[in-house]
Amino acid sequence: MEILLVEDEPSVISLIERGLKGENHSISIAMDGFTGLKMAGLHTYDLIILDVMLPGMNGLDICRNIRMANKDVPILILSALNQTEDIVEAFNRDADDYLTKPFKLDELRARINRHSRKARMQAPPSNTITIDNLTIDRDSKHVERGSKAIVLTATEYRLLEYLMINKNKVLSRIDILEEVWGMDFNMSTNVVDVYVNYLRKKVDHPFERKLIHTVIGMGYVLRNEN
Source organism's superkingdom (predicted)? Predict the structure, then answer.
């Protein structure tokens, strides 16, 4: 993979370079935010790894700016900030993954490999899912309910897509964390509940029929109660 690492700590850079040596990855380094954003715009990468606290521009602002031009490149936030609100804010900026420092190289490798596998997967030719009057087009990422278009962040979209693919199946928080966020990166956070509430406000609250349901003690399910 072609990886852009935006990180200002030489020890972390060295650790990642040594840890990924011999795994067929090419790593480009930027040690400040402005340089990282410029490199992301000039070159095509298979994965971008962003620290949050950077000189010049922080990683979350870089993430948002990258997303304005490139909706597909996976972005992994690598940060010492480990509170729920920090993680939620990163996904609100359309990050795909979040790994807290200090981290284990095996976990970083696993996440990189997962993004590599997903990049190799080909989408099926017919990619529309409809449940009740809710429809997603998995090619264009367009979501609408009735005749109303629904604007979702990248993380909200992945969560809705996962719920719709598994219509009528109760999904535990662990299931959702592993599929939507890639890993059970911090089982003590309530990030799943936060994002389900985000979805409900956009997908359910404006409509009479509710599709997203809580199964107490078990998880969440998307189904048409009628």
Answer: Bacteria
pTM of the shown model: 0.65
- 144: nearest Cα among 126, 160, 155, 159: 160
Alpha-carbon span 40 to 63, nearest angstrom: 10
pLDDT in tens, 70-127: 878 999 999 999 899 999 999 999 999 999 998 999 999 999 988 887 776 644 555 8
Strand pairing report for 134-137 and 142-145: antiparallel
Residue 188 amino acid letter: S
- Domains of the chain with bracketed CATH: 2-120 (3.40.50.2300), 128-222 (1.10.10.10)
